[in-house]
Amino acid sequence: MLDFLIASVQLDPIAIIKTGSYLGIALIVFAESGLLVGIFFPGDSLLFAAGLLSAAGFLALGPLIFFVVAAAIIGDSVGYWFGAHVGTGFFQRKDSRFFKQEYLKRTERFFQKYGGRAVILARFAPVVRTLAPVLAGIGSMTYKRFLSYNVVGGLLWGAGMILLGYSLGSIIPDSERYILPLSLVIIVISFLPILTSVMHEKNRANGVLSDNLNNEI
Question: Are 119 and 131 in contact (CB under 8 A)?
């Protein structure tokens, strides 16, 4: 248990899997989906690495997918409940180590752009993944509607990331030796939508500033 806690604090996907097995993986997925303290947990790389290790025989594929999908759905439901009952007051707090107002604003814009589909799409966006169910609870989305998006998103993300790792592990000999570099690639890819969004917002802000300066001139 202590080894698992150390691995979790160090955000080491491979160590989390080897020390925590199915339950440990499920706990990390649950925390990232439903608890704000899990906002920086390595969900994508963890599931991808779990899929690779499953292909190598370290984990059974069926139970792995079951525990992960269940944890993702339950975690998002807890996040929704938190938003519905506590969220409004909580998000008025100042920035801290685990929470920044910018994360909230970014997630709000995500909802404004995609509507209810944001619950599904947020699964594939780190940080936004943790805050999306909370904002859904704060907003006007009913739990019945949220649950339908939640289940679809949990299945697509949880099973999808695991199967991606499993598929690569099945065709790459000794794939477990390349878990670290392959997981880093997954992390970079998972952050691309956020980086693209940030760059787009900066360009839009610069464009507005430029227009204002031209008008003043």
Answer: no
141/145 Cα distance (integer angstroms): 7
In a domain, 202, yes or no: yes
Number of domains in the chain: 1
Decide: 138 and 28 in contact? Cβ < 8 Å: no
Secondary structure of 45-71 as H, E, C letters: HHHHHHHHHHHCCCCCHHHHHHHHHHH
- The answer to whether residues 76 and 214 touch, using CB atoms and an 8 Å cutoff, is no
Residue 107 lies in a domain: yes
Where in the sequence is the domain holding 152, given as residue range(s)?
2-211
Say if 217 falls within a structural domain. no
Would you say residue 109 lies in a domain?
Answer: yes
Cβ(106)–Cβ(128) under 8 Å?
yes
* Torsion, CA 36, CA 42, CA 44, CA 45, rounded to 10: -170
Per-residue pLDDT of the chain (217 residues; tens, 9 = 90+): 666 766 666 667 778 888 889 999 999 999 888 777 767 777 888 898 899 889 888 899 999 999 999 999 999 999 999 888 876 666 666 766 656 667 677 777 777 777 788 888 888 887 788 888 888 888 778 899 999 999 999 999 999 999 999 998 888 777 667 666 666 766 666 555 555 555 555 555 454 444 444 555 5
